[in-house]
Automatic annotation (TrEMBL):
Keywords: Disulfide bond, FAD, Flavoprotein, Oxidoreductase, Redox-active center. The keyword Flavoprotein applies. This is Thioredoxin-disulfide reductase. One of its GO terms (molecular function) is oxidoreductase activity, acting on a sulfur group of donors, NAD(P) as acceptor. Residues 2-281 form the FAD/NAD(P)-binding domain. PROSITE patterns: PYRIDINE_REDOX_2. Transmembrane segments: none annotated. InterPro entries: FAD/NAD-bd_sf, FAD/NAD-binding_dom, Ferredoxin-NADP_redctase_2, Pyr_nucl-diS_OxRdtase_2_AS.
Length: 293
């Protein structure tokens, strides 16, 4: 379930064991990793775009398994030792399931955010950053995603600034160093409280949380990178155990608390890196194979 790095790797491993497998993906191959401007920490690749990495991984996975895009699992039911999966296209019976459902970008949760999506608000600089070349753009957030968006937008020639609610970034040091080296300004202790415009976003109100002073600034776009929420509702609906943040709990063999149901990738929380997702996918696949009923 899911064709991001974890699901694709699991597909490679399970398929190579000669099992009849299928990767069901509710959207397109790749998941959030499609939005990684540059992957520079996956062993074997000094630097590769997320899209190129996924293209290569998917090509490899297709040698061993089927990948079906736009097929969403809507219900999972366990009966007589088998898993019955209902999707928007049909039904399957499986001996094991590996959940690699990833995460979804969190929204800011302010008025008109939905209205301006694609009209100034974005969550993916890889997808549409080029439209903002030479224009004023803000990135909201202080984590790795915000840092990567800001660096990518700067490279595209945007006039980019980061708005962060605290006075230190949580992004990894190498990203922070690049931000400073490229002279990307950071508006500290600040949050975006209002979005203004008619059809297109024209300006935003930024509030300094220390002084409580509001300032309206004209922008062509803002990129929101305020974290993620795990796609674990379906797993929860079949009784899989979640932690307090909604991530699926697992043991070191990537087993959930339900026999024959495994989990891998960002939906497990922890260190959310492509290399970790791939590793977890491999562990889940090997255990699923070795413990087939
Ligand atoms: P994240 O690490 O959870 O960071 C979210 C950022 O948004 C934090 O700085 C947080 O502020 C801020 N924030 C949260 N809610 C907010 C709100 N309502 N208003 C304003 N700011 C808000 O999320 P992420 O950057 O999307 O990364 C998600 C995971 O993927 C992480 O594990 C990350 O390491 C991983 N990732 C890795 C890479 C890489 O390795 N190159 C790239 C992208 C993502 P505070 O700091 O105050 O909490």
């Amino acid at each position: 379930m899911g064709a991001g790095p974890a699901g694709l790797t699991a597909g490679i491993y399970v398929g190579r064991e000669g099992l009849k497998t299928k990767i069901l993906e509710k959207g397109v191959i790749g998941g959030n990793a499609n939005n990684a401007p540059l992957v520079a920490n996956f062993p074997g690749f000094q630097s590769i775009t997320g899209i190129e990495f996924l293209k290569k991984t998917a090509e490899q996975a297709k040698m061993y398994t089927n990948i079906v895009e736009y097929e969403e699992i809507t219900k999972i039911h366990k009966t007589d030792g088998k898993l019955l999966l209902t999707t928007n296209k049909g039904e399957y019976s499986a001996k094991a399931l590996i959940i690699c459902s990833g995460t979804t970008y969190r929204k800011l949760g302010i008025k008109d955010e939905g209205k301006f999506i694609g009209r100034g608000i974005s969550y993916c600089s890889i997808c549409d950053g080029m439209f903002f070349k030479g224009k004023e753009v803000l990135v909201v957030g202080g984590g790795n995603s915000a840092a990567e968006h800001a660096l990518h937008l700067k490279d595209l020639g945007c006039n980019v600034k980061i708005v962060h609610r605290r006075n230190t970034l949580r992004a990894q040091k190498y990203l922070q160093d690049k931000i400073h080296a490229k002279g990307i300004p950071i508006i500290w202790n600040s949050i975006v409280t209002e979005l203004k415009g008619n059809n297109l976003l024209k300006s935003v109100v930024i509030r300094n949380t220390k002084t409580e002073i509001d300032k309206e600034v004209e922008v062509a776009g803002i990129y929101i990178a305020v974290g993620e929420t795990p796609n674990s509702e379906l797993a929860a609906s079949m009784g899989v155990d979640l932690d307090e943040l909604g991530y699926i709990t697992t043991d070191k063999n990537q087993r959930t608390d339900i026999p024959q149901v495994y989990v891998a990738g960002d939906v497990t929380g922890g260190v959310q890196q492509i290399v970790v997702a791939c590793g977890e996918g491999a562990v889940a696949a090997v255990n699923a194979y070795q413990n087939l009923p």
